[in-house]
């Protein structure tokens, strides 16, 4: 379709080129013709600027008058003075007779002038005796002949000059006709050019508003619609994102990805029908817009239908995984919000759907928006929470299952929000990861944990959780090294706890872990058993500790399967020289079970809840860590 | 009122042509020179039939002169013409631009022209051609001349027809 459109445009380009060339050529012709017209006009002016015929006629009259004057003089009726005046008039004619008509010599006129000049000379010669009858008669006869010559000359020149003028006039008329034709052609071509350019502009505009792959309107179109919805009371916007689209592209090829998008375009077009419009607003993102009564219902129905049709549609590719959609819907019933802000909400809802595993429709209800707003406010507050001292570290002991002696402490973070009170890290750490504030918070925790652990007896370890964002921070390893040096804590006492997710989300995790290991810092794999629990990771990386998630541990009592898994993990850990920590030990029964399963270390409320730094110090003292030798076995009662 | 050859003769030429009848007019010794005497009144000026002046070539030559160097349809080579401009000439008779002039030549050639048109075109009443008074036998005594070369727009019948040679009378109306 794209090539077809381009081809059409290229064709138009050629056509426009031809039109422009024709315009240019015609323009040149018009200029040439107008120059010709000017020349012909000038020729016509020249031909008619001086009327020679008139001069010849005047000459004829003057010659005849001289003849009559001579007759009068000879008869004594006229004075010599008058004779001389009449002669002077004819003499002047010799000088003024035109012998050239529009630049060309007029032969008859030249001959007539010579005849006139000769006659004047003869008359001049005989002027003193002109009164004599025979002289007068001879001169009168000669002048009468001359008058006839001039008479003929005038009629001749009348025709010649007429021809000349007519010639110029014809040429001028032709040139003007040519000019008129050229101008009409120019106007015609100009009009066609305008039409084509206008059409081309429309087509470019259409192209700019259309997604070339699916043929759907694009984001620019969607923005345009947003303006059109002004005034509508009920509006619903749905944002649809294809789950794991990148993976589809990567594993099945872009062709398959493109086909999936095209199929989706067809599906969306079908399900929106006449109630709404659909646009492709991003790589794998579509937006649906519904206006009018029941917009939200239409949106929900259309989205549900799209999901159903996609399910029925064979979209599977090589890895047999079905494509699913994450959909966010935002709506308004009183028209008091702009489509842009609804789009943002729908987008957030879509992300929320995606974050909870995808393949879901989330409606950006008021509750959702409040929640979102709350999260944004918290993220804002978090930026300054470290400097305001709202964060607090607490420590939970990790105990040797066999001896019940403290082995170390896991550092946990609490946030005392001025308005919301104490907040759990499960709640605010994801928010901190979103904004990147986790890096600063993580440094604070590490710093605090090491400063406190520095005062503990030497063998006790301190565990600190590290998030994916922190691990991606380039300065992370350097900061760990500096913190260890600053607080003078032996590197082997620091255990960094990371989850599988951290490894998945960091391409260079191995490098960072190797560097940390080179420092002497211990690495623990946290929450093992909740994610992929991939054996691959255990082989790929070296872990000092494996922490079995409490969800496994807590079900050990009821489900034999869990116990078997825990046992298996413990066996596996022994093989790779890692120590297993069982989390969530809350009862004596569990303690004995994990002990029986082979776990060496345990953590849980049975031993202690997370404690402040001071309480931790007291806890350590109660355990008798005053000297390394006198380390009495503590009793459960003492710890509780 | 039309100027005819007769009125002209009555107004100006007749007394001259009639010989030494009028005092102050020198009778020519020879007929051939009598017409070309620079002192002889040759140009009659009248307004509505009332005679205002009869000017000789010397009178005209005594006015502030304008020189033109131009080709004309009646010369093959550029020629220098000299004489008072029409503007200067008419100022003697407190003429207005809107005034109509009737120019009469010795050969009964008569044309009318607006004073403004002649003045605007830079017309002069040439009495000299290449430095010498023009004889009556060659376009004299007075030749209305325009700067044709300097202004090509003047090269048209409109102005050629006003280039009157052998001018002998100007009537202002």
From TrEMBL, chain A:
Residues 233-366 form the GGDEF domain. Pfam families: EAL, GGDEF. InterPro entries: Biofilm_reg_signaling (IPR052155), EAL_dom (IPR001633), EAL_sf (IPR035919), GGDEF_dom (IPR000160), Nucleotide_cyclase (IPR029787), Rev_trsase/Diguanyl_cyclase (IPR043128). This is Bifunctional diguanylate cyclase/phosphodiesterase. PANTHER family: BIOFILM ARCHITECTURE MAINTENANCE PROTEIN MBAA, DIGUANYLATE CYCLASE DGCP. Residues 375-624 form the EAL domain. It comes from Jiella pelagia. Keywords: Membrane, Transmembrane, Transmembrane helix. Gene3D superfamilies: 3.30.70.270, EAL domain. The chain crosses the membrane at residues 12-31, 179-199.
TrEMBL record, chain B:
PROSITE patterns: TAT. InterPro entries: OxRdtase_Mopterin-bd_sf, TAT_signal. Keywords: Signal. It comes from the Bacteria. Residues 1-23 form the signal peptide. This is Oxidoreductase molybdopterin-binding domain-containing protein. It comes from Jiella pelagia.
């Amino acid at each position: 379709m794209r090539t077809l459109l381009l081809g059409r445009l290229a064709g138009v380009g050629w056509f426009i080129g031809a039109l422009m060339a024709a315009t240019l050529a015609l323009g040149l012709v018009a200029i040439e013709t107008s120059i010709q017209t000017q020349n012909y006009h000038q020729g016509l002016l020249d031909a008619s600027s001086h009327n020679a015929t008139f001069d010849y006629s005047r000459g004829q009259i003057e010659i005849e008058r001289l003849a009559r004057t001579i007759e009068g003089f000879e008869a004594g009726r006229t004075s010599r003075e008058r004779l001389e005046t009449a002669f002077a008039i004819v003499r002047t004619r010799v000088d003024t007779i035109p012998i050239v008509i529009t630049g060309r010599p007029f032969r008859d006129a030249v001959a007539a002038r010579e005849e006139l000049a000769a006659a004047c000379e003869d008359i001049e010669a005989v002027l003193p005796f002109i009164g004599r009858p025979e002289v007068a008669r001879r001169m009168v006869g000669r002048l009468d002949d001359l008058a006839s010559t001039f008479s003929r000359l005038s009629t001749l020149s009348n025709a010649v000059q007429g021809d000349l003028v007519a010639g110029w006039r014809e040429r001028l008329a032709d040139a003007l006709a040519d000019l008129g034709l050229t101008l009409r052609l120019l106007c015609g071509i100009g009009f066609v050019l305008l039409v084509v350019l206008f059409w081309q502009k429309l087509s470019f505009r259409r192209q700019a508003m259309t997604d070339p792959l699916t043929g759907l309107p694009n984001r620019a179109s969607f923005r345009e619609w947003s303006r059109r919805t002004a005034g509508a009371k009920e509006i619903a916007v749905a944002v649809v994102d294809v789950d794991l689209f990148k993976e589809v592209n990567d594993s099945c090829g872009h062709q398959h990805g493109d086909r999936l998008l095209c199929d989706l375009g067809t599906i969306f077009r079908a399900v929106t029908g006449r109630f709404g419009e659909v646009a492709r607003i991003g790589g794998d993102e579509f937006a649906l817009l519904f206006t009018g009564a029941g917009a939200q219902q239409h949106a929900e129905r259309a989205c549900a239908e799209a999901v159903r049709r996609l399910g029925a549609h064979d979209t599977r590719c090589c890895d047999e995984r079905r494509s699913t959609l994450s959909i966010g819907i935002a709506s308004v019933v009183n028209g008091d919000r702009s489509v842009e802000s609804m789009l943002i909400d729908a987008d957030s809802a879509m992300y929320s759907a995606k974050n909870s595993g995808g393949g879901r429709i989330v409606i950006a209800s008021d509750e959702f928006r409040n929640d979102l707003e709350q999260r944004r406010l918290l993220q804002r507050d978090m930026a300054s929470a470290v400097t305001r001292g709202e964060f607090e570290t607490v420590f939970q002991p990790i105990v040797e299952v066999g001896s019940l002696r403290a082995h170390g402490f896991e550092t946990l973070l609490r946030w005392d929000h001025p308005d919301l009170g104490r907040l759990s890290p499960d709640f605010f750490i994801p928010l901190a990861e979103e904004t990147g504030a986790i890096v600063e918070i993580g440094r604070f925790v590490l710093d605090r944990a090491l400063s406190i652990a520095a005062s503990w007896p030497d063998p006790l370890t301190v565990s600190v959780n590290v998030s994916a964002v922190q691990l991606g921070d380039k300065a992370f390893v350097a900061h760990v090294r500096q913190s260890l040096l600053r607080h003078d804590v032996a590197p082997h006492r620091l255990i960094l706890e990371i989850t599988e997710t951290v490894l998945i989300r960091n391409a260079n995790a191995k490098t960072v872990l190797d560097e940390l290991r080179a420092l002497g810092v211990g690495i623990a794999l946290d929450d093992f058993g909740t994610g992929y629990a991939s054996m691959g990771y255990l082989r790929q990386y070296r872990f000092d500790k494996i922490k079995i998630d409490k969800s496994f541990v807590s079900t050990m009592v009821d489900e034999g399967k869990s116990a078997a898994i825990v046992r298996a993990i413990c066996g596996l850990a022994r093989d790779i020289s890692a120590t297993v920590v069982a989390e969530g030990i809350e009862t004596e029964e569990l303690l004995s079970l994990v002990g029986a399963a082979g776990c060496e270390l345990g953590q849980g409320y049975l031993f202690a809840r997370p404690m402040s730094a001071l309480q931790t110090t007291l806890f350590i003292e109660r355990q008798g860590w005053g000297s390394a030798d006198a380390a009495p076995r503590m009793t459960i009662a003492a710890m509780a | 009122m039309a100027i005819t050859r007769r009125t002209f003769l009555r107004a100006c030429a007749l007394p001259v042509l009639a010989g030494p009848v009028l005092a102050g007019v020198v009778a020519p010794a020879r007929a051939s020179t009598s017409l070309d005497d620079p002192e002889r009144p040759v140009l009659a000026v009248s307004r509505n039939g009332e005679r205002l002046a009869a000017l000789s070539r010397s009178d005209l030559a005594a006015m502030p002169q304008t020189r033109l160097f131009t080709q004309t349809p009646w010369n093959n080579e550029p020629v220098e013409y000299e004489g008072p401009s029409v503007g200067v000439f008419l100022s003697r008779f407190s003429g207005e631009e809107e005034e109509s002039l009737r120019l009469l030549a010795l050969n009964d050639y008569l044309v009318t022209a607006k004073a403004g048109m002649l003045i605007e075109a830079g017309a002069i009443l040439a009495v000299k051609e290449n430095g010498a008074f023009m004889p009556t036998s060659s376009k004299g005594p007075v030749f209305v001349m325009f700067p044709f070369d300097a202004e090509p727009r003047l090269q048209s019948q409109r102005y050629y027809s006003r280039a009157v040679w052998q001018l002998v009378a100007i009537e202002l109306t």
